[in-house]
């Protein structure tokens, strides 16, 4: 008896209809893989358009401005080449003294505020990560100041720390020049900034703490590790990526501080607390020297880029050592 294709047993006995159905099912899958990159770019398109229009093109245009004696009021904007950059490094020039004095003030503020905004939020996050009654309420309390604008914070602390009618001096019974004399102005600026932005870093730390497996703490506890040893050997290594983010963003934010000194001290005493962003704003918007202001902005950007690379390098070396 002849054996037909329909009566065969094994891999060769697949009916032609089933073969056609299988090929039809597999065809769209291949086309789907080819269309996935296009779909991804379509989703990215709105962000890429905004990034190009508000970041890349303004940055390129800013470089062009920095190479000109640019006054947006006057129609003629002469080419000066690198003179705006050279002036920042030439002693005795118009911009040399004020520029580096403002950079120094920015460095002081950054050096004082960054350690506080890295260490204090970490301690608060560790405490708020434990289970206790009212934990959600206290998390909200610490984060609440961050939702306020810099104008609200600046005016609030200006009245609280006013040397003559401020609430702080009233309760202390002393006339401390919080907003008019050194070193109190730095205490005021750093304290206000820490109180304002501490909740954001604490929230980032809390998110990182929830990603650390609980089993690591249980294993460390079984090995007899104390709370301090658990913190150094489990918590900190688990938070290393979060620490990189917090340290980098805090340095960048502190180096770009402007609203606090404008509203609280106005650069006083003299120009001691005038940060580099304040000086750039004054030169560009008040003195109409947009070319010089743009050059200062790019020098600041280079400094911040170098600092960010150093931070990444330090954390990477520590990760390799561990």
Write structural notes for this entry.
- This protein has 322 residues and is mostly helical.
- It has 2 domains: 16-58; 83-321, Orthogonal Bundle (MetI-like fold), CATH 1.10.3720.
- Helix content is 71%, strand content 0%.
- The protein is built from 13 helices and no strands.
- It has helices at 16-66, 83-88, 96-128, 135-143, 150-160, 167-172, 184-210, 214-222, 227-238, 240-255, 259-265, 276-286, 290-321.
- It is globular.
- 22% of the residues are buried.
- The model is unreliable at 1-14 and 22-27 (pLDDT under 50).
Question: Quick summary of this structure?
Answer:
By secondary structure, the chain is an all-alpha fold. The chain is 71% helix and 0% strand. The radius of gyration is 30 Å and the shape is globular.
Order of H and E elements: HHHHHHHHHHHHH
The helix content is over 70%
Structural class: mainly alpha
- Our count of helices gives 13
Name the CATH homologous superfamily of the largest domain.
MetI-like
Q: Provide the residue-averaged pLDDT.
A: 89
The counted number of beta strands is 0
Describe the global form. globular
At CATH level 3, the topology of the largest domain is MetI-like fold
The radius of gyration computed from the alpha-carbon positions, rounded to a whole number of angstroms, is 30 Å
How many structural domains are formed by the residues? 2
- Which CATH class of the largest domain applies here? Mainly Alpha
Main sheet overview: none
The fraction of residues in strands falls at: under 5%
List low-pLDDT spans: 1-14, 22-27
End-to-end Cα distance, whole Å, is 75 Å
CATH architecture of the largest domain: Orthogonal Bundle
């Amino acid at each position: 008896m002849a054996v037909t294709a329909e009566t065969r047993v094994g891999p060769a006995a697949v009916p032609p209809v089933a073969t056609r159905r299988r090929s039809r099912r597999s065809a769209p899958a291949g086309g789907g893989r080819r269309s996935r990159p296009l779909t991804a770019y379509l989703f990215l398109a709105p962000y890429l358009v905004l990034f190009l229009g508000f970041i890349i093109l303004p940055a390129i245009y800013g470089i062009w401005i920095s190479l000109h004696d640019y006054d947006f009021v006057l129609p003629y904007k002469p080419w000066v080449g690198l003179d705006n950059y050279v002036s920042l490094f030439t002693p005795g020039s118009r911009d040399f003294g004020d520029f580096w004095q403002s950079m120094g003030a920015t460095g002081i503020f950054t050096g004082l505020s960054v350690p506080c905004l890295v260490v204090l939020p970490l301690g608060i996050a560790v405490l708020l990560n434990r289970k206790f009654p009212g934990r959600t309420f206290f998390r909200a309390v610490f984060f609440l100041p961050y939702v306020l604008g810099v104008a609200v914070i600046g005016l609030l602390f200006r009245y609280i720390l006013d040397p003559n009618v401020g609430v702080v001096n009233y309760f202390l019974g002393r006339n401390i020049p919080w907003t008019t004399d050194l070193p109190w102005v730095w205490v005021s600026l750093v304290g206000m900034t820490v109180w304002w932005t501490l909740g954001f870093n604490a929230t980032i730390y809390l998110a990182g703490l929830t990603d650390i497996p609980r089993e690591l703490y249980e294993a460390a506890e079984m090995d007899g590790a104390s709370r301090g040893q658990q913190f150094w050997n489990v918590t900190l290594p688990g938070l290393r990526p979060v620490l990189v983010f917090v340290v980098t963003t805090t340095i960048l934010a502190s180096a770009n501080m402007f609203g606090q000194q404008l509203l609280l001290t106005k650069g006083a005493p003299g120009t001691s607390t005038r940060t580099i962003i304040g000086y750039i704003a004054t030169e560009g918007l008040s003195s109409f020297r947009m070319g010089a202001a743009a050059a200062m902005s790019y020098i600041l950007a280079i400094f911040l880029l170098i600092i960010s690379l150093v931070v990444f390098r330090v954390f990477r070396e520590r990760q390799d050592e561990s």
